[in-house]
Every structure is written in C-alpha cells, then in structure tokens.
Amino acid sequence: MSTASPTGTPAPGQLTFVAPRRAKPARHLADLTMAERRAAVAELGEKPFRADQLSRHYFDKLNGEPATMTDLPAAAREKLGTALFPKLLTSVRELTTDNGTTRKTLWRLFDGALVESVLMRYTDRTTMCVSSQAGCGMNCPFCATGQAGLTRNMSTAEIVEQVVAGARALAAGEVPGGPGRVSNVVFMGMGEPLANYKAVIGAVRRLVEPSPSGLGISARGITVSTVGLVPAIGKLADEGLPVTLALSLHAPDDELRDTLVPINTRWKVSEVLAAAWDYAAKTKRRVSIEYALIKDINDQEWRADLLGKLVKNKLVHVNLIPLNPTPGSKWTASRPEDERAFVRRLEYHGVPVTVRDTRGREIDGACGQLAAAE
Length: 374
Ligand code: SAH
What we know:
Layout: H1 34-43, H2 49-60, H3 74-84, E1 90-97, E2 102-108, E3 114-121, E4 126-129, E5 133-135, H4 144-148, E6 150-153, H5 156-171, E7 184-187, H6 197-208, E8 222-226, H7 230-237, E9 244-248, H8 254-260, H9 269-283, E10 287-293, H10 301-311, E11 316-322, H11 336-348, E12 353-355
Parallel strand pairs: 4-7, 7-8, 8-9, 9-10, 10-11, 11-12
Antiparallel strand pairs: 1-2, 2-3, 3-4, 5-6
Helix pairs in contact: 1-2, 5-6, 7-9, 10-11
The structure holds S-adenosyl-L-homocysteine.
The site of S-adenosyl-L-homocysteine has 18 residues, from strand 8 and strand 10.
C-alpha cells in the first residue's frame, strides 16, 4: 500500500500526513455570544473578564490582532489569540469607484472559497453589502452568483468580519469623507441569507448587540433580502429583531416567476406575499419588494398593474432595480420609457416606489453582479 486509507489511518510503518479535512471555518470570537465567550476563555484557563477585554478590542476598536492587545498578559494574548482570532478573510483584490466612496473587496476564505462585499458611502449613511454564502443555490437566471451554484454556507464570524473590515476602513479614514461608521448592512451580496439561517441570525445579533457584545448597529439599518423561503420568513418574524425584509419578487405572476426565481415552483407568489404581510404585521416594518426591470421580460404595464393590485394598501415599498446584465446574458435593462410607465402604474395604485441607483456598476459591484470571478 502506498497511500493512506481514506479514513486517515496510515499503513503500518508509513510516514503519512493526512491533512484534516476541515469542513467548517474555525471558531472565532464573533461566532460566540458573550456567555459563550466567557466560557471559552475559562476553558482555556483564563479569567472570564478577559472575554470582555477581547470583545472591546474587536467590536469597539475593530482590532482583531491579539498581538497588539497590550492590556492582556503576553501568554494570554498568544493563547486566546490562537483560540479566538483565526484569520478568516484574506483580501485578494479591492476595486474602488465613485471617487473612492464605493469599494468592492474580493475575499478568500480559509478553504479557498471566494466571496465579495461592497462598501457604499453616501452623504447621510454608509452601507455594507455582505455575502452570506459562497455562491448560491437558488439559480436565478439573471443573477451572476446564481450561475455558479452553491459552494458552502458562511459562518457567523465570516459574515461579521466583512462588516468589521468596512468599519475599520471607515474609522481609519480610508474612505473619502473623513472618519465614519457603518450605519446600514444589507444581505444582498452573494448567497441566499435565509438558506443559511442560523449563521445569518447570529451575524445579525452580533451587528445589533451593543458593545462589548457586538457592533451596536441599529436593527432598522439592517436588511435581509430573500428569494422567499416562506418557512424561514416566518421564523425571522418571530426573532424579535426589527430588521427590514426585502423580498425579491421580480414578477407578479407565477408563470414568469417560476422561471426568474425558480424557488417559486415551491412557494408561489401568493404564499410568499402572505409571508411578507405577516412579517410586516409582526415587526411593524415596511417590507421592501425588489423588482429587477428586465427589458421585454417583466416590464410590461399589465405586470405593473398586477403588481400594484397585489401590494396596494400594504406596509410596503417597491424597489425597482434596472437589471445589471451579467456576462453572456441575453437580457438587459428596460427602456427608460418602459421604466417610467412601470413607476407611474404603481403610483396610480398608491404604492410607494423608487428606482434603485446602480452604484458600483463599473466595478461589477452592483446588485447581482457579485460572482467572484478569478
Ligand atoms: N439571495 C437574496 C440576496 C442576494 S441578491 C435575494 O435573492 O434576495 C440581492 C438582490 O439583487 C436580489 O433582489 C436579486 O434578485 C437582485 N439581483 C440579482 N441579480 C441581479 C441583476 N443582474 N440585476 C439586478 N438585480 C439583481
């Protein structure tokens, strides 16, 4: 026998190193609740208050480098650093546009998987658009991420680290406009957040919990965007987290939505909208209906009319997104006059509607373009 068995047991007398197949990213401080952090620190033979010190370094000072945490004894830094601050994200490439106020980062994860995040600074807010999965399994034909399929779920800390990295760049004054903070987080990067429910909820909790437990971002500034996984929307409504729900509808009729958002074959337009209205009733939060306008596919006035009838008099806002064509796609954005007519039709029904800007388009950082092509 010349190779180790698949179970990792070497043949007798053979010097073989079988690398452990780590299926999951290593545990990080940001994966843990405050109580879990104290327990983890105690398990390593350190006083539980060290967990508070570490948390302040990470969530207040945005410092993830244990070697620089000089208020901890050197031995503790080494031990706790190794155990709670594994390197999760490595920046592979950074692209900026809009005079540096839009910035996309391509990250490599521990296992080589690639994901992207985008920072967008406006005059009154700064939004981080984060990924929740490497790839995506929802297979929407107009979305760049959907074409590549799902690689794996991200961990809570891998999600949080994207926001911390943005917060760090802002705090350091690296983004034009002076030192600033992250005010909004949208789960509109790669992945279907509600298909990675547990890790995403963990990340949302870390984002909203006040210091030293988390980053202290207002739940109202956080948007979870979904294709419409109905049971998970129901669960989210019961979390007691008033985050904004964005529902990627893209078509008001099942026939078309079955093709644009294939999960519609499982949960129909009527079911997904019912879940959205339940969400709005429970959280008192306005639900955002996302609708990518695709020329001659879903932008007809009769569809605007049908959409208007379905959502009128609800706690809702319709967000029209001019399609960002993905490479090789036959589809493109609607004609300006069709877009205007679509808006007018919704306004006729009294539905609040806006057309989303397409920031980051030049750096493939706009909605649905995050594909991590390398
Ligand atoms: N999986 C989640 C979140 C990620 S995508 C979801 O589907 O909601 C974030 C938003 O961008 C979704 O509304 C998605 O439908 C939209 N989107 C995807 N590809 C797009 C494209 N090429 N042009 C415009 N919007 C797109």
